[in-house]
TrEMBL record:
Function: Catalyzes the acyloin condensation reaction between C atoms 2 and 3 of pyruvate and glyceraldehyde 3-phosphate to yield 1-deoxy-D-xylulose-5-phosphate (DXP).
Catalytic function, reaction form: D-glyceraldehyde 3-phosphate + pyruvate + H(+) = 1-deoxy-D-xylulose 5-phosphate + CO2
NCBIfam families: dxs, PRK05444.2-2
Binding residue positions for thiamine diphosphate: 76, 117-119, 149-150, 177, 294, 377
Gene from which this protein is expressed: dxs
Protein name, as recorded: 1-deoxy-D-xylulose-5-phosphate synthase
Length: 628
C-alpha cells in the first residue's frame, strides 16, 4: 500500500476542509493510490472512479456536506466519495455480502443524499432537494453530477427543462469524459465534442509538461505559470464562441461555466466556490479522463470500466485455468449472429450495453443492422416498434432492470399494436454484487400482465438458444429472460431449431409431489427432487402457460410446488394458481420465489440461500411444508 499521510488524517469532509488548498493535489494523488489498492483487491467499478477523484475532493472541500446535497448519477464514480465520507476503513468490503454497496445508498450514510444505480436521475433528484430547501428557507445547496453518457437520456432533459424554469439554487456538473460504459453515441456527445475547445486543453497540458522541468527550478515561476494557465482557461470559457456554441444549456435557463479541467483540483475549488455563491440554475462543464492515473484504464476504459481484481507489478502470471463455460450472454450473442445470417430482416438494438449484452461480434459482422441508441431505454423500445412496423425483425438486447425504464413504451408502442419485437432480457433474477438497483426479479410479474406478450424462461444454455429461435419466429412481441453468468453446462447446438410455443417438458417422474420450475430454478428443483422423489416439469413458458401439463400434474399428484427466480407477487407461481382456480382444481400449492423484500448485494449463491432458492434451501422449505 502506498504511503498516504494526508488521507490518513481525513475521515470525513470536515477533516478535508481543514487542509490548505495547495495540499489538495497531494491528497488527490493519495486518494487515487488508495483507490487503486482497494479496488485492486476487491474488484468493482474502476475507470470511472479514477476519473472523478479531483472533482470529488473539490466538491467536499467547497460544499458543506452532508447539509449540502451531492447526488451522483448512476454511482459508478462514487468510491472516492465513500472514502472521504467515513467509509475508508470499510472499502475492503465493497460489493461483498454484508459490506459496502457499490452505489450510493441512503441507508448506508448521511452523505449519500440519494440512492442511485440507474442513469440520468441525478438532476431531477437534486432539483427536488433544491425546491424543498427553498420552501424550507434553509439556504442549503444541491449539486447533481452527471456524465455526458447519462445526459443522452430523456429523463435528464426533462429535469433540465423543469429546473431552468424554476428559481432555485441548483448546480449541475456535466462530467464529460466521452464515455458511458462503451464509447458514447448519438448527436449530443458529438455536439459537446465539436463545440468544446479541447485543443486548448491539449496545448496547455503539453506546455505544462514540457515547461515544468525548466520552471520548477525558478522560485515562484510555477505559481505564475499556473495563474497564466488558469487565466487562459477562464478567457476560453468566457469567450463569445463558446457561449454561442454551448447555448444549448443556456436555452434551458442554466448559466453555463466551462469547460474546466477536471483534474486540476485547485482550479476546480476556485470555480466551485464562485458557483456556490451564485443564484439560480448553474451548469459546470468539466472535462475528465476515464481511468485517469492508471495507464491501462486510460487506454482501454471499456475493459477497465469494472474489474474483478488487479494484478500488481511483479506478480507471477496467473496459473492457466480451463476455459469457462459460455455464459448466457455469449449464447445469445452467437445465436444472434447465426439468426442474422439466416434472416436479413433482423436488426439488433442496445441502450448503451454493447459489451454487457453480448453484441460486440454482431456489430462487427452486421454493422448496418446494429443500433446503439445510447442510454435511452424508452427510445430503444419505441424505435424497435417503428422498425417492426416496416417489416424488420428487431431484437432488443436489454438487462431486466433496464427494461423497467421502457415499460410504458413496451405496453403502448409494442404490445398493444402486437408488433413482432423480441426482447432478449439479460441479468434476470439475482445479479450479485450490483445489488437491488440491478436485480432482475420483477420482469415476469410486469411482463405477464401485458396482452399479446409471449414470455419464455430457459433452464439451460441449449434451452436458451432454442427459445430465442422460437420466439424470434413469432409474429408477436416476445421476451426470453435468462440469468447472469453460466448455466448447467449443457451442450449447445449451432442450429436454429424451435420448440412448440407454450409447451413444457416433464424432466422427472416422481411420487406425490410435483415441482413446476421456471427458468433457472429447474436445476435446483431437479436436485431437490432426487431427495423428495418428486416429479419435475421444466415449464419453459410463463406465457402462454402449458395448462394441459399443469392440469395433468395436478390430477396425478397430491402436492404442487412452483419455483421461480422472480417476485412471487404476480409471477409464474401466481399464473399457475390462476389456472388451477379457473379449472376448479383444489390442491395444496407452495409458491417459491423472491418474497416481498428488497434484495441485497453480495455473492449470488449466498443470496439465493438467504432467499430460500438454493437447492438445499428449496429442499428444506418443501420438506417443512409437507411435514406441516
Amino acid at each position: 500500500m502506498s504511503q498516504t499521510p494526508l488521507l490518513d488524517i481525513v475521515d470525513l469532509p470536515q477533516d478535508l476542509r481543514r487542509l490548505e488548498k495547495k495540499q489538495l493535489p497531494q491528497l488527490s494523488a493519495e486518494l487515487r493510490a488508495f483507490l487503486l489498492d482497494s479496488v485492486g483487491k476487491t474488484g468493482g467499478h474502476f475507470a470511472s472512479n479514477l476519473g472523478a477523484v479531483e472533482l470529488t475532493v473539490a466538491l467536499h472541500y467547497v460544499y458543506h456536506t452532508p447539509e449540502d446535497k451531492l447526488v451522483w448519477d448512476v454511482g459508478h464514480q462514487s468510491y472516492p466519495h465513500k472514502i472521504l465520507t467515513g467509509r475508508k476503513n470499510r472499502m475492503n468490503t465493497m460489493r461483498q455480502y454484508g459490506g459496502l454497496a457499490g452505489f450510493p445508498k441512503r441507508s448506508e450514510s448521511a452523505y449519500d443524499a440519494f440512492g442511485v444505480g440507474h442513469s440520468s436521475t441525478s438532476i431531477g433528484a437534486a432539483l427536488g432537494m433544491a425546491v424543498a430547501d427553498k420552501l424550507a428557507g434553509n439556504g442549503r445547496r444541491s449539486v447533481a453530477v452527471i456524465g455526458d453518457g447519462a445526459m443522452t437520456a430523456g429523463q435528464a432533459f426533462e429535469a433540465l427543462n423543469c429546473a431552468g424554469d424554476t428559481d432555485v439554487d441548483l448546480l449541475v456538473i456535466l462530467n464529460d469524459n466521452e464515455m458511458s460504459i462503451s464509447p458514447n453515441v448519438g448527436a449530443l456527445p458529438k455536439y459537446l465534442a465539436r463545440n468544446v475547445v479541447r485543443d486548448m486543453h491539449g496545448l496547455l497540458s503539453s506546455i505544462k509538461a514540457q515547461s515544468s522541468k525548466v520552471l520548477g527550478a525558478l522560485p515562484g515561476a510555477m505559481e505564475i505559470a499556473q495563474k497564466v494557465e488558469h487565466k487562459i482557461k477562464s478567457m476560453a470559457s468566457e469567450s463569445e464562441h463558446i457561449k454561442q456554441s454551448l447555448s444549448l444549456f443556456e436555452n434551458f435557463g442554466f448559466a453555463y461555466t466551462g469547460p474546466v479541467d477536471g483534474h486540476d483540483v485547485e482550479h476546480l475549488v476556485d470555480v466551485l466556490q464562485n458557483l456556490r455563491a451564485k443564484k439560480g440554475p448553474q451548469l459546470l462543464h468539466v472535462i475528465t479522463k476515464k481511468g485517469q492515473g492508471y495507464k491501462l484504464a486510460e487506454n482501454d476504459p471499456v475493459k477497465y470500466h469494472a474489474v474483478s481484481t488487479l494484478a500488481k507489478e511483479g506478480d507471477a502470471p496467473p496459473a492457466p485455468v480451463p476455459p469457462p463455460r459460455p455464459t448466457y450472454t455469449q449464447i445469445f450473442g452467437r445465436w444472434l449472429c447465426d439468426q442474422a445470417a439466416a434472416d436479413s430482416r433482423l436488426v439488433a438494438i442496445t441502450p448503451a450495453m454493447r459489451e454487457g449484452s453480448g453484441l460486440v461480434e454482431f456489430e462487427q459482422q452486421f454493422p448496418e443492422r446494429y443500433f446503439d441508441v445510447g442510454i435511452a431505454e424508452q427510445h430503444a423500445v419505441t424505435f424497435a416498434g417503428g422498425l417492426a412496423c416496416e417489416g424488420m425483425k428487431p431484437v432488443v438486447a436489454i438487462y431486466s432492470t433496464f427494461l423497467q425504464r421502457g415499460y410504458d413504451q413496451l405496453v403502448h408502442d409494442v404490445a398493444l399494436q402486437n408488433l413482432p419485437v423480441l426482447f432478449a432480457v439479460d441479468r434476470a433474477g439475482i445479479v450479485g454484487a450490483d445489488g437491488p438497483t440491478h436485480a432482475g426479479v420483477y420482469d415476469l410479474s410486469f411482463l405477464r400482465c401485458i396482452p399479446n406478450m409471449v414470455i419464455a424462461a430457459p433452464s439451460d444454455e441449449q434451452e436458451c438458444r432454442l427459445l430465442l429461435a422460437t420466439c424470434y419466429q413469432l409474429d408477436a412481441p416476445a421476451a426470453v429472460r435468462y440469468p447472469r453468468g453460466s448455466g448447467a453446462g449443457a451442450d449447445v447446438s449451432d442450429g436454429l431449431d424451435t420448440v412448440p410455443v407454450g409447451k413444457g417438458v416433464l424432466k422427472r417422474q416422481g411420487g406425490q409431489t410435483a415441482l413446476l420450475a421456471f427458468g433457472s430454478m429447474v436445476q435446483p428443483a431437479l436436485q431437490a427432487a432426487e431427495v423428495l422423489d418428486a416429479s419435475v416439469a421444466d415449464m419453459r413458458f410463463v406465457k402462454p402457460l402449458d395448462e394441459a401439463l399443469i392440469i395433468e400434474l395436478a390430477h396425478r399428484h397430491d402436492y404442487l410446488v412452483t419455483l421461480e427466480e422472480n417476485a412471487v407477487q404476480g409471477g409464474a407461481g401466481s399464473a399457475v394458481l390462476e389456472v388451477l382456480a379457473q379449472h376448479k382444481i383444489m390442491k395444496p400449492v407452495l409458491v417459491l420465489g423472491v418474497e416481498d423484500t428488497v434484495t441485497e448485494h453480495g455473492d449470488p449463491k449466498q443470496l439465493m440461500t438467504d432467499l430460500g432458492l438454493s437447492a438445499d434451501a428449496v429442499l428444506a422449505q418443501i420438506q417443512s411444508w409437507l411435514a406441516g
